[in-house]
C-alpha cells in the first residue's frame, strides 16, 4: 500500500520534472518565425516527402509472435518460483515432467517458426 | 485509493469510446490497462498486476499502436460516422445502463456475496493469491488445462505464420 | 507512519530519481572521453578540470535552443513522448535495492522529537520487484513509438518501428534468461536475492552442503549461460551498440528522434542512459551479489566501522553508504563495459540482429532453463 503511494508519487514527480524541463526550454529559447523550408520534414537532398504507408508485414508478425511467446514465458515464471517448494514436497518429478511437456510445446512452436522462415528479414 | 483509480479507469475508458481520433483512443486504452494493473496491485494480486503490465501494455497494446501508426496519418484519419440512433435506441441504451448499475448495487447489498470475503477468511484468500499458491493450484489442479493452453498457443503460432506468409491480398 | 516519516521517504524517492538523472551527464562525459581515448583523440578537456563541466555548459546551451516543431508533427504527442520516456527508467530504478536499510536516530526539529526511522535505500521494496521491473520497462516502447509517429517523418517512423520490433524481440530473450535465476532463488524480491548471495560459493547436494571457499556465492557461478544471455539481451534492450539499429545513421539519420532537438532530444538521452543504468544495476544485483563485498558480511563492516571510531548514531548510515559505494563501483564497471563495447565493435545488420534474438538467444535461454531445472532436481 505504501509502496503504491511511492510509485504514484514517483510517476507524478517525473511528469512534473519533464514538464518543467520542457517549459524552461520553451521560455528561455529564442522565438523565431518559422518558414516553410525550415519546418518541413527532414530529408537529405531530395524534396521532403510525406509519410510512407507500405511497411513490411514482418513488423506485425514480430509483434504477434512476441505476444504468444511472452505469454508462454510468463507461464514459466510461477513454475520457476515454486519449483523448490515442489522439490521439497517430493513432487519434483511430477512438476519437472509437467513443465518439460510445456517447454517441448514452446520449443516446437519456436522451431516451426524458425523453419518456416517467418522472421527472415531481407 | 480505490476510488482514485476507479475514476481514472472510467475516465480513460470513456475517452476510448468517445474520441474520434484512433490514436487517442489507443493511447487511452493503454492508460486503461495500466490503471487496471494498479487496481490489481491494490487487491494484492501483485503477480497478476505485473502480468497485466507485461502482456497487455507491453505486448498487445504495442501491436495495436504499431498498426494504428501505419494506417493513420493526417491524410486518412478514420472518421467514424455519427451512428444513426433512433429515440428508442437511446432510451433502451439508457435503460440498459441504469439496469446494470442498479444490478451492481443490488448484488453488493446481497449478504451472500459479502460473506464470501469477510475479514476472517480474507487472510486465507491472500495466502492463496501469493505466487506460490498460484503455481500450486495451476500445476496440480489445472495442469491439464495448462498443457492444453500450451497446445492452443502452438496452434496460434502456426496459424499466425501461415496467414502472414500467404501470398495475395494487399502485400507481396 | 507519521508525517515526518512520509516527508523523509518522499525526499528519498526524489533523491534516488535525481541520482539517476545526475549519472547521465557523468556518463556522457565518460563516453566522450573514452571514445576519444580509444580513437587516440583528446575529447572535451577545456571546460573545467578534465573537461568535467563541459556537460554543464552543454545543458545551458540546450536550455537556450530554439523551440522547433516540424510542420506536420502532432504537437501534443510530440511534446508528450520525451516526458514519457523518463518514466520507465525511473520506476524500474526505484525498485532496485541500492544498499542496506539504515536507521535515522532520534532527532529534534522545531523542538519536537522525531523517533528513529528505518529507511530502506530504495524507493519502494516490492516483493515482486523483478516482474515489476520487467513490466515497467516494457512501457519504454511507447515513448519510442510515439516519438517516431508524432514527428511525421519517414526516417523517424522506420526508426521507431525498428526499435519497437527489436526491443520486444529481445524482451523475450531477457525474460527467458531470468528463469534460471528464479529457479535458484525461488523469489521475485531483489533484496532476498542479494541476501542469498552472501558468503562463499555453496550448494546442497542430496542434503549435504558443499562449499568452494575461494569463490563468492554470486549468481554468475550458478548461472553462467543465463548471465551471458542476459548481458546480450540488455544491450539490445537499451538500443546500444552493437545493436543500435534504430539509430543507424547510414540508413535512418538518427532514428526515432530525428526531428527532435535541444532539451527534448536530451531527455531521450536521459532515458537511454537510465535504461543502461537499470540494466547494469540488475546485472549487479542478480549475478554479482548486489551491494555486498565478497566474503565480508554487513555485520563485520559495521563492527570495523565502530572500532574505527564512528559514533553509534551514524553507524548504520555510514555502513549503508559504504555498501552503496560498493554497489556503485560494480555498476560503473558494467557501464564502462557498455561504453567500451560501443567504441570497439561494428554494428550488426538488422536481419542478423533479429536472427540472433529469435534463433540463438531464445532457444539457448530455454535450454538454460531446462538444464537448471534438471540439475536442481538431481541435486535435490
Describe this structure in words.
- The complex is a heterotrimer of chains A (122), B (172) and C (380).
- Chain A is an all-alpha fold and 122 residues long.
- Chain A has helices at residues 2-28, 58-88, 92-115.
- Chain A has a domain at 56-122.
- Chain A has three helices and no strands.
- The two termini of chain A are 50 Å apart.
- Chain B is an all-alpha fold.
- Chain B has a domain at 1-81: Four Helix Bundle (Hemerythrin (Met), subunit A).
- Helices cover 78% and strands 0% of the residues of chain B.
- Chain B has eight helices and no strands.
- In chain B, helix 1 packs antiparallel against helix 2 (22-42).
- The model of chain B is unreliable at 112-119 (pLDDT under 50).
- Chain C is mostly helical.
- Chain C has one domain (3-379).
- Chain C is built from 15 helices and six strands.
- In chain C, the strands form three sheets. In chain C, strands 1-4 form a two-stranded antiparallel ribbon. A two-stranded antiparallel ribbon of chain C has the order 2-3.
- In chain C, a hairpin with a 2-residue loop joins strand 5 and strand 6.
- Chain C is globular and about 65 Å long.
- The A-B interface holds A 1, 4-5, 50-51, 53, 55, 57, 59-61, 63-68, 70-72, 74-75, 77-79, 81-82, 85-86, 95, 98-99, 101-102, 105-106, 108-109, 112-113, 116, 118 and B 1, 38, 41-42, 47, 51, 54-55, 58-60, 62-63, 66-67, 70-71, 73, 75, 131-132, 134-136, 138-139, 143, 146-147, 149-151, 153-154, 156-158, 160-162, 164-165, 171.
Give descriptors for this structure.
heterotrimer, B: 172 residues, mainly alpha, Four Helix Bundle (Hemerythrin (Met), subunit A), 78% helix, C: 380 residues, two-stranded antiparallel ribbon, 15 helices, 6 strands, 64% helix
Summarize the structure.
The complex is a heterotrimer of chains A (122), B (172) and C (380). With 172 residues, chain B is mainly α. Chain B has helices spanning 2-18, 22-42, 46-71, 87-109, 111-116, 119-129, 131-138, 143-165.
Can you summarize the main beta sheet of chain A?
Answer: none
- Rg measurement of chain A, Å: 26 Å
CATH class of one domain in chain B: Mainly Alpha
Number of helices of chain A: 3
- Proportion of helical residues of chain B: over 70%
Average of pLDDT of chain A: 79
Query: How many β-strand runs of chain B?
Result: 0
Give the terminus-to-terminus CA distance of chain B. Answer: 52 Å
Distance between the termini of chain A: 50 Å
Looking at the overall shape, the CATH architecture of one domain in chain B is Up-down Bundle
Query: Quick one: overall form of chain A?
Result: flat
Say what the CATH topology of one domain in chain B is: Four Helix Bundle (Hemerythrin (Met), subunit A)
Count every beta strand of chain A, where a strand is a DSSP E run of 2 or more residues. 0
Assembly classification = heterotrimer
Major interchain interface with per-chain residue totals: A-C, 69 and 77 residues
- Which stretches of chain A are poorly predicted, pLDDT < 50 over at least 5 residues? none
Q: How much strand content do the residues of chain B show?
A: under 5%
Radius of gyration of chain B: 21 Å
What do we call the CATH homologous superfamily of one domain in chain B?
Answer: NADH-ubiquinone/plastoquinone oxidoreductase chain 6, subunit NuoJ
Please report the number of helical segments of chain B: 8
Order of helices and strands of chain B: HHHHHHHH
Amino acid at each position: 500500500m505504501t509502496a503504491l503511494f511511492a510509485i504514484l508519487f514517483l510517476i507524478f514527480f517525473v511528469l512534473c520534472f519533464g514538464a518543467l524541463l520542457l517549459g524552461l526550454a520553451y521560455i528561455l529559447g529564442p522565438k523565431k518565425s518559422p518558414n516553410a523550408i525550415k519546418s518541413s520534414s527532414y530529408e537529405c537532398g531530395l524534396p521532403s516527402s510525406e509519410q510512407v504507408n507500405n511497411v513490411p508485414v514482418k513488423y506485425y508478425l514480430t509483434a504477434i509472435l512476441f505476444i504468444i511467446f511472452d505469454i508462454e514465458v510468463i507461464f514459466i515464471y510461477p513454475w520457476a518460483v515454486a519449483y523448490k517448494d515442489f522439490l521439497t514436497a517430493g513432487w519434483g518429478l511430477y512438476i519437472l515432467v509437467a513443465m518439460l511437456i510445456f517447454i517441448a510445446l514452446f520449443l516446437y512452436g519456436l522451431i516451426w517458426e524458425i523453419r518456416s522462415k517467418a522472421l527472415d528479414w531481407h | 485509493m480505490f476510488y482514485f483509480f476507479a475514476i481514472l479507469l472510467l475516465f480513460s475508458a470513456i475517452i476510448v469510446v468517445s474520441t474520434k481520433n484512433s490514436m487517442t483512443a489507443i493511447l487511452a486504452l493503454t492508460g486503461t490497462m495500466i490503471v487496471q494493473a494498479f487496481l490489481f496491485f491494490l487487491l494484492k494480486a501483485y503477480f497478476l498486476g505485473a502480468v497485466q503490465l507485461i502482456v497487455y501494455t507491453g505486448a498487445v497494446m504495442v501491436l495495436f499502436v504499431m498498426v494504428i501508426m501505419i494506417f493513420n496519418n493526417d491524410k486518412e484519419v478514420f472518421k467514424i460516422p455519427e451512428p444513426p440512433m433512433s429515440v428508442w435506441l437511446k432510451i433502451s441504451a439508457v435503460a440498459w445502463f441504469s439496469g446494470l448499475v442498479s444490478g451492481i448495487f443490488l448484488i453488493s447489498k446481497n449478504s451472500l456475496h459479502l460473506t464470501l470475503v469477510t475479514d476472517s477468511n480474507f487472510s486465507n484468500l491472500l495466502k492463496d493469491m501469493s505466487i506460490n499458491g498460484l503455481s500450486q493450484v495451476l500445476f496440480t489442479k489445472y495442469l491439464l488445462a495448462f498443457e492444453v493452453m500450451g497446445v492452443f498457443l502452438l496452434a496460434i503460432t502456426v496459424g499466425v505464420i501461415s496467414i502472414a506468409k500467404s501470398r495475395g491480398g494487399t502485400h507481396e | 507512519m507519521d508525517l515526518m516519516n512520509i516527508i523523509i521517504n518522499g525526499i528519498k524517492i526524489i533523491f534516488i530519481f535525481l541520482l539517476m538523472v545526475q549519472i547521465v551527464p557523468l556518463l556522457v562525459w565518460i563516453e566522450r572521453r573514452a571514445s576519444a581515448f580509444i580513437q587516440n583523440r583528446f575529447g572535451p578537456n577545456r571546460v573545467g578540470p578534465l573537461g568535467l563541466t563541459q556537460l554543464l555548459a552543454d545543458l545551458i546551451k540546450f536550455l537556450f535552443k530554439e523551440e522547433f516543431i516540424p510542420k506536420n508533427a502532432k504537437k501534443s504527442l510530440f511534446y508528450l513522448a520525451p516526458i514519457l520516456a523518463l518514466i520507465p527508467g525511473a520506476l524500474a530504478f526505484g525498485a532496485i535495492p541500492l544498499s542496506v536499510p539504515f536507521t535515522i536516530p532520534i532527532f529534534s526539529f522545531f523542538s519536537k522529537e522525531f523517533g528513529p526511522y528505518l529507511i530502506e535505500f530504495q524507493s519502494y521494496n516490492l516483493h515482486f520487484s523483478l516482474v515489476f521491473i520487467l513490466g515497467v520497462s516494457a512501457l519504454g516502447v511507447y515513448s519510442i513509438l510515439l516519438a517516431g509517429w508524432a514527428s511525421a517523418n519517414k526516417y523517424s517512423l522506420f526508426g521507431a518501428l525498428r526499435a519497437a520490433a527489436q526491443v520486444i524481440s529481445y524482451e523475450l530473450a531477457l525474460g527467458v534468461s531470468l528463469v534460471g535465476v528464479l529457479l535458484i532463488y525461488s523469489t521475485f524480491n531483489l533484496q532476498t536475492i542479494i541476501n542469498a548471495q552472501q558468503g562463499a560459493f555453496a550448494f546442497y547436494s542430496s542434503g549435504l552442503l558443499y562449499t568452494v571457499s575461494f569463490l563468492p556465492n554470486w549468481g554468475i557461478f550458478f548461472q553462467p549461460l543465463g548471465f551471458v544471455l542476459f548481458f546480450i539481451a540488455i544491450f539490445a534492450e537499451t538500443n546500444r551498440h552493437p545493436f543500435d539499429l534504430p539509430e543507424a545513421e547510414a540508413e535512418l539519420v538518427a532514428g526515432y528522434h530525428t526531428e527532435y532537438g535541444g532539451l527534448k532530444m536530451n531527455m531521450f538521452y536521459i532515458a537511454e542512459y537510465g535504461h543502461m543504468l537499470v540494466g547494469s544495476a540488475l546485472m549487479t544485483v542478480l549475478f554479482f551479489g548486489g551491494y555486498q563485498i565478497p566474503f565480508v558480511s554487513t555485520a563485520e563492516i559495521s563492527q570495523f566501522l565502530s572500532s574505527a571510531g564512528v559514533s553509534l548514531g551514524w553507524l548504520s548510515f555510514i555502513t549503508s553508504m559504504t555498501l552503496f559505494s560498493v554497489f556503485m563501483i560494480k555498476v560503473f564497471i558494467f557501464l564502462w563495459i557498455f561504453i567500451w563495447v560501443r567504441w570497439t565493435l561494428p554494428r550488426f545488420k538488422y536481419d542478423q540482429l533479429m536472427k540472433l534474438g529469435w534463433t540463438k538467444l531464445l532457444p539457448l535461454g530455454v535450454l538454460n532453463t531446462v538444464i537448471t531445472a534438471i540439475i536442481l532436481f538431481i541435486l535435490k
